[in-house]
Amino acid sequence: MAILITPETKILVQGITGDFGGRHAKLSLDYGTKVVAGVTPGKGGQVFEHGSHKVPIFNTVAEAAKATGATVSAIFVPPPFAADAILECVDAGLDLAVAITEGIPVKDMVRVKRVMQGKKTRLVGPNCPGMVCPGAGKDSHGGCRIGIAPGYINKKGHVGVVSRSGTLTYEAVFQLTTKGIGQSTTVGIGGDPVNGTSHLDVIKLFNEDPDTHAIIMIGEIGGNAEVEAARWIKAHCKKPVAGFIAGATAPAGRRMGHAGAIVGGAEDTAAAKIKVFQECGIEVAVTPSDMADALIRSAKAKGVKLS
Amino acid sequence: MNIHEYQAKTLFEKFGVYTSKGVAVKSMDEIDSALAKLPDGVIVVKSQIHAGGRGKGTFTDGFKGGVKVCKSKADAKFTAGKMLGNTLVTVQTGPAGRKVQTVFFTTGVNIKKEYYLAILLDRVSSRPVIVASTEGGVEIEKVAHETPERIFKVFIDPAYGLAEYQVRQLIFQLGFNPTEQKNAAKLIRNLYTMFWETDASMVEINPLVTIEGDLVEALDAKVSFDDNALFRHSDIVALRDLNEEDSKEIEASKFNLNYIALDGNIACLVNGAGLAMSTMDIIKHFGGNPANFLDVGGGASKDQVVAAFKIILGDPNVKGIFVNIFGGIMDCNVIACGIVEAVKEVGLKLPLVVRLEGNNVVAGKKTLADSGLTITSGDSMADAAQKIVHLVNNHATPL
After folding, report:
1. Cα–Cα separations (whole angstroms), residue B164 to B115, B161, B171
2. Is residue B127 domain-shared with residue B198, that is, in the same domain?
3. Is the ipTM beyond the 0.90 threshold?
4. A250–B293: do the CB atoms touch at under 8 Å?
5. How many Å is the Cα radius of gyration of chain B?
6. What is the domain extent for residue B25?
7. Quick check: B63 contacting A, CB < 8 Å?
8. pLDDT in tens, A193-210
9. Domain CATH code at residue B37
10. I need a surface site. Which of A98, A181, A235, B382 has the fewest CB within 10 A?
């Protein structure tokens, strides 16, 4: 088991005929992911070919889902059209929409998030690396890779990883795998100020998942999502948790790459978040090189085996 | 993207947010004709820079005050002459200050009371929030800390927009008289329309004032826009003032590089925003000082790496370079070739530490090793960070 997806999950790719979407659809197919459909309006009926794979392309998400049984979409469409693409997934009743697109206007996401209230579809992202559920094969082949993360650095196992940042997630996963510790699911929730799934949402899912034995939570300056999750962990989560916050040296008022990574007030600095982590019993990684080791320390203290 | 006060007030006028008449000038020659457009009497002269704390700022030649109230047009002309081309240092500019290239004249008003009004995104609820206070003209953070009961907020449902009852709630809480209430309600409604329609990320009026005739006026204006939405607002893009931006940051954006100058001496070149931020952190952790934030993005090319090196080396404070790449999908060897080419092209003399990890890393490391260049290799982020800090702090020659 894992959270939200399994190696059996069937996915469709919105924007599969674009350079970006196409390249990553191929990498997911190579990883053994069940990419069953592509969606590009106006290109319905065409086929996306990669090696022996022939992926049918549809005009709409609803058609693609009905014809192929896809329950999850990976969204690669350009920013001006991305909000619309997410809404199309909601209307088609998909379980999950993973929006990779970077640069969606905040106002569009404010509206999308409002529309999604009470609907069954969950949104991960936008501006995120996506999700990986490692498979049992060599270099975790046979897993479900949705988005742009490298699949081969993963290893099937029992650590859940949640992060706003892409490369920092890869860093954590790589450290774990190098030390022989596998992952249940890795979730990149994205670097935007308004996103579909929060740190806390993912932490709750990891907490309920019997296959996830320990958690790494990676955050950044800006907002209070990490603090909210940390307080919940203190009250409800018994599993070992390690945390890291990027941006201790970032000057106030400057946007550090991610739209959401900006220090506005005293509460959203790295120092403030790290302090809350410590108060909540989360083992804080001193540097990004220390993320896996921090989790090992936390697991040891709680008597939990990681591999 | 930020704009100047005078530009924000032009937008205010367009959307029906009441503000007193003003004229902006960029040179001494324009001053007389600009002042002729304003009535006689008190004139306020305001330096236009993208930083707060102007009133209490000091110019580098000792002239005090970036905002001055002048009793006559002659006085206003003299004051504007002092400001134009001069460099203003405020609490927000840093010691280098900002060169004042535009001065804004507005007519003086008799203020009855000062208030605070702002609209921004509330990240917790993912909705716009209007923040208002009976305490204006002071730092709002201070009010929030000391007298939180004087701050009022309404959260706006994006499915409906600003509701009338919410406007009423605010005008009653702020304690306006009946005529002021009408004027304030109109101003709040129009300000929200402007915020929403222009994809603003923040509009702030501090102070909002009541004046004679029970008018309610935006005395100051601070407006910024969502960079992600600029593609649909060419009129707002036209307001961008490149003089207010770091020339290296502008150059970087041409190559799709995300660069932010800092005041340290170890330059960083990293892929991914989170990793770039934590690379700065780890340099600091081991006793160094980062010179910049630089994210080359997920799919960096050779050209981008070369451009990045040139931009980094444009900062005279830089004494060493730390390249930290986690090539998940991106080929480490492509990056390695880019680094070798860049080092040769710019004739790099400074210590360079490279940490490569990920896809095709063995070939990448071989490319660096076989290049004949003095490039120090780091195994982990921590190892590489310690090496560059050591090299820079000890003025050592590369290993």
Report:
1. 20, 10, 11
2. yes
3. yes
4. yes
5. 26
6. 21-107
7. no
8. 999 999 999 999 999 999
9. 3.30.1490.20
10. A235
